[in-house]
């Protein structure tokens, strides 16, 4: 990825209750996933998570997730809202493969960590939970960005291991993720955006050399022959508003973009939105209608 983390204060450890897990296991797991995800399934790691997506034949993202491996099982960490459609999508391609695909969100709690490596690393026994580092963010050496998957029966052991650790709300953690230009999908935004709309090639979440996968023809055409006229941008507002994905952005009496995802901390709401390039000289946009809440463009991506 070309960009590095900003100097935004690191939030700490958060229980990401809005995120769940899909497990794929069986002797054909890697071969099956190679034809379905945007990254190289042969590189799935037990140590590092990578950002990846699953697309429909039109190249639109059905699911956006972090992917890794625990023993012989491949794990996808993604928004709970998107799991039902993601499962329906991949199961129709799985009938000729020796694999099992299951939603294990009720078995694994997801925690996110963004902290200083020198003083705030969370050490837990492997019997309590699995730690994945995030490999694509190119964060400074003194920072950690990790996910922890913890089984319910070991929740008390995990709580004891992190009792003195700096905690944060899920909203704080997602706000930090947003500010670092890392999008996610919800039920409204599934099947709506191309990987390029979400900046996924720049995030290292598309491998154009791995061979065919569902939606690959459309995505490759956009990469090599297309001319993208809208790009994902970061905005924020201090107004206490609820921002819903796919809400329209307005400039005067024109709609010029739409929301991909949004997150709020105690002070601001950060928004990742797809905005038409020829309107980016403007710094102020409106949400929902021409008189709606003011959104400020933070920087061009």
Write the layout of secondary structure elements.
Layout: E1 12-15, E2 19-25, H1 29-34, E3 48-55, E4 61-70, E5 73-79, H2 83-91, E6 100-103, E7 108-116, H3 117-120, E8 129-134, E9 143-151, H4 155-161, H5 170-179, H6 216-224, E10 230-237, E11 248-251, E12 254-264, E13 269-276, E14 284-287, E15 294-299
Parallel strand pairs: 3-8
Antiparallel strand pairs: 1-7, 2-5, 2-6, 3-4, 4-5, 7-9, 8-9, 10-13, 10-15, 11-12, 11-14, 12-13, 14-15
Descriptive account of the structure:
Pfam families: GCV_T. Residues 12-114 form the GCVT N-terminal domain. This is GCVT N-terminal domain-containing protein. There is one protein chain. This protein is α+β, with helices and mostly antiparallel strands and 301 residues long. It has two domains: 12-179, Gyrase A, domain 2 (2-Layer Sandwich); 229-301, Elongation Factor Tu (Ef-tu), domain 3 (Beta Barrel), CATH 2.40.30.110. The chain has helices spanning 29-34, 83-91, 117-120, 155-161, 170-179, 216-224, and strands spanning 12-15, 19-25, 48-55, 61-70, 73-79, 100-103, 108-116, 129-134, 143-151, 230-237, 248-251, 254-264, 269-276, 284-287, 294-299. A hairpin with a 2-residue loop joins strand 4 and strand 5. Residues 1-6 have low confidence and may be disordered.
């Amino acid at each position: 990825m070309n960009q590095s983390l900003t100097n935004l204060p690191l939030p700490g450890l958060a229980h990401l209750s809005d995120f769940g897990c899909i497990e794929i296991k069986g002797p054909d797991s890697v071969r099956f996933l190679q034809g379905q995800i945007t990254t190289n399934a042969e590189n799935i790691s037990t140590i590092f998570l990578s950002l990846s997506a699953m697309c429909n034949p039109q190249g639109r993202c059905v699911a956006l997730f972090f992917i890794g491996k625990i023993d012989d099982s491949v794990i996808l960490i993604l928004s709970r809202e998107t799991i039902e459609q993601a499962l329906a999508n991949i199961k129709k391609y799985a009938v000729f493969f020796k694999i099992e695909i299951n939603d294990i969100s009720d078995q694994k709690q997801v925690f996110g960590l963004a902290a200083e490596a020198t003083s705030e690393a969370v050490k837990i026994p492997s019997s309590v939970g699995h730690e994945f580092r995030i490999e694509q963010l190119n964060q400074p050496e003194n920072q950690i960005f990790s996910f922890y998957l913890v089984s319910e029966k070991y929740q008390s052991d995990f709580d004891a291991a992190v009792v003195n650790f700096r905690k944060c709300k899920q909203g704080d953690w997602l706000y930090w993720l947003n500010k670092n230009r890392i999008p996610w999908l919800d039920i409204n935004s599934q099947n709506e955006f191309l990987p390029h709309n979400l900046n996924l090639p720049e995030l290292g979440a598309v491998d154009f050399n791995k061979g065919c996968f569902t939606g690959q023809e459309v995505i490759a055409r956009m990469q090599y022959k297309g001319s993208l006229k809208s790009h994902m941008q970061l905005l924020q507002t201090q107004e206490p508003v609820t921002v819903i994905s796919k809400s329209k952005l307005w400039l005067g009496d024109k709609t010029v973009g739409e929301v991909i995802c949004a997150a709020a901390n105690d002070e601001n709401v950060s928004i990742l939105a797809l905005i038409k390039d020829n309107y980016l000289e403007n710094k102020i946009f409106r949400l929902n209608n021409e008189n709606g809440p003011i959104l400020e463009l933070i920087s061009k991506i």
